[in-house]
Amino acid sequence: MRRMKQSMPQWHWTLLGIVMLFGLLGGLMGSPLTSEAAKAAKDSFRVAVVDPQQVMEKSKAGSRELATLNEHFKARENVLKSDQKELERLQEELKAADGKLPEKELKKKQEFFARKYQDFQKRGQEFQTEMVEKQREIGQEFQKKIEAVISVVAKRHGFSLVVDKGSEKTIKIILYNRKGLNITGEVIKEFDRRYK
Predict the structure, then answer these.
(1) Burial, 93: exposed, middle or buried (Cβ in 10 Å; 0-12, 13-18, 19+)?
(2) Is 70 exceeded by the pLDDT of residue 16?
(3) First-to-last CA distance in the chain?
C-alpha cells in the first residue's frame, strides 16, 4: 500500500476518496433500513458544490490578496528584466570586442559575463521558489477562511456534504451538478461580509 501511495499523485487519492465516499453513501441509502429510517436518511442528506478558486478570485478579500501577490511578483519580474537587459548589453560588448582586445582582457570580460549570467539564473530560481512558497502560504491561509465560511453556509441550509467543484485551473472534480446545488455565489457574499 505504501509503494502504491507514493506512485499516485495527490489528486488521484482525493478523487478515490470522493468515489469511495459516494459509494459508501450510496450503500447506506440503499441498505435495508426500515422504510421510515431510509426516508429520513435520504431526506436529511443534502449535497452542495462550491468552487474555492472562484471564491478567491471574486471575493473582495481574495481579489486584494491576488493583487498584492501580483504587485510583489511584478517587482521581482522587473528586476529580472533589468538583469536580462544588462546581460544582453554585456553580450553585445563581448561580440564587438572579439578580436579587438588582448586575449587576457577578453577572457576577463567573458568571465565577468559568465558570473553575471550565473547570478541571473540563480536569482530567477530564487524568485520562482519564493513565488511558489508565497502562493502556497496564501492559499493555505485562504483555504482555512473559505472552509469556515462554507461551514456557516452549509449549516444555514442544512447541507450534509459540500464538495469542491474544482476548476479549469485545478482539477475538475464535479463534471455535472444540478442547478441550485452550487453555493459559490452565496459563499462569496458571506466571505465578503466576514472578511471586508
Answers:
(1) middle
(2) no
(3) 45
Backbone angles phi, psi at 175, to 5 degrees: -90, -25
Region(s) of the chain under CATH 3.30.910.20? 46-194
* Amino acid (one-letter) located at 59: S
DSSP percent split of the chain into helix, strand, coil, nearest 5 = 75, 5, 20
The predicted pLDDT at position 195 comes to: 87
How large is the angle between the packed helices 60-97 and 103-157, nearest 10 degrees? 170
Q: Does domain 46-194 have CATH number 3.30.910.20?
A: yes
- pTM (two decimals): 0.62
130, 169, 157, 193: which is closest to 51 by C-alpha? 169
CB burial of 114-153 (b: ≥16 within 10 Å; e: otherwise) equals eeeeeeeeeeeeeeeeeeeeeeeebeeebeebbeebbeeb
